[in-house]
Structure formats: structure tokens, C-alpha cells
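Hi Y.,

Following your request, here is the sequence exactly as I used it, all 287 residues.
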Amino acid sequence: MADQNEVLRLKEIAFKVRKMLLDLSESYSGILHLGGSLSMVEAIVALYHYGMNINPKDIKSPTRDRFVLSKGHAAACMYITMALRGFFDFDEIVKTYGKLDSAFGTHPCKVHLPGIETSSGSLGQGFAMAVGMAISARQQKKTHRVFCMLGDGETFEGMVWEAANTAGSYKLGNLVAVIDRNKQFMTQFDGTYMNMDPYADKWRAFNWNAIEIADGNDMSSIVDAINTLPAYDSQMPTVLICNTIKGKGISFMEKNLGWHSGSLSKEQWEVATAEVEKAWELERSVV
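Below is the corresponding structure, written out as C-alpha cells. Let me know if you'd prefer a different format.
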């Protein structure tokens, strides 16, 4: 059972990430992929602030866990989560996000931003690279894990299942995939034309340990799942399937296809910020 003081600490960080995402969107002249960023907040916060062995003061440590954001369009959420972990300052993100030659591009770039393990954004390719990194770690007898976050829409890609088959065949127990399964894609909901169910069984068919998290926006459930991860030298890769809500926390964004990406007007920012702050105050009041 997750330590509730630790869960509360992580929930507060998740609140800050949501609020900062809104602030960045309101100040940035372009668009952010807000819907899929908001749905993955709890999972990525739990990884960077709890589950992964990382040190922002020693980003090249050979024993560090590696993280790949395969759904690279949600880079802003990762940047903010990393900033709150101490990798860099949030103000730098706000000042330069999306600008030419910025370290904080709309997709992650390892050349421009130290602390990023690999550039990503072409869907499916990030996961394939993570599998390769896990194979390399095994061959070199390294003890770290490789974590990879994917969107569920991304898992329509054939490359994902080739990589999943490879990981299962190579028995990569040092690999952990985290799926932001909000069941909502750019222009449609899961099941409108294509259906991925039974989802967990597909991973199990490729010899993966599949852990389903009924509420992937519940921090306690995510921490519990992380606590059950097998050792890095186990013989089966693990996938955490986080059932989430796209646009989580913002009433006019939740399950709204119009908010796959977008920017906030001043009025929308005020409404969204008030909702996030009210939800956090309610959360704190029941502790």
C-alpha cells in the first residue's frame, strides 16, 4: 500500500504541473498538445519524482534509469515535470518554448537539451529505441531500467508491436512501458472505427507482464503499481496500462476531441486555473 504522505507530495507536484501547463499555454503564441499532456500528468510525475533512479545533478550517471517519451508531442508536460525535479528552471521554458534553436522544442531533442535520453516525436519510434536501449543494457550487464511512455493511439502503429514482440522474445525485464490510455485520438475515440480491445491481452500475447490501472489519474494507484515492478533482471518486460481522461482536470477539455491540441485565451485560462486550484484545495481538505 502506497505511503499516503508520499502520495500527497506527488499529488501536489501534479497540481503544480497542471497549473504550469496552463500558464505556458496562455503565454505561448503557438499551440500545445494540452489534452494528452493533462491525461499523463500523474504517471509522469510518479516516474520522475518517485519511481525512477535519476539525479538532476548527475545526468550522465551510468547507473541512472533511462526515460523515453515516445509520445513526443507531450514534451511540455515532461519539461515542466523535469523542472520541478530540478533539471532546469520553469522560467526558461516559458521564455523560449517552441522558439528557433530553443532547448525546449515542441518535441524533445537530446542535442539541445541535456537530460533527454533520445529525440522523439515520430510515433512508435521512441518505443522501438527504448527496446534497443534495454537490449544494450542487458548485453553490457547494466543494472538500470528503461522506461518508455506511449500514447494509446500510438499503439496502432505496427512498429510498436514489432518492438513489443522483440522485448518479450528477449525477455527484457529491465524495460517498463507506460501507456497513457485515454482512448481518445486526434480525430476520433477508440472504437469509432478501430478497436484495440482486449488491450492488455495483446501485450500478454507478446510475453509482457501487463498491469492494468483502472484510474490512471489516481496517484495512489500508480505508486502501488510502480512498487510492484519486478527486478531489473527479471525475465519479462512490464507494461503499466493507465486508463486516463484526456484533458483531465479541465471541464471543457475532458473527453473533447477539440482539445487534442490548442491554446488558451485569457478567459479560458482563468476558468481552467480556477478549476485546477479548486480541485487541489478540495484534495488537501480531505487529508
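The longest helix spans residues 4-27.

Thanks again,
Q.
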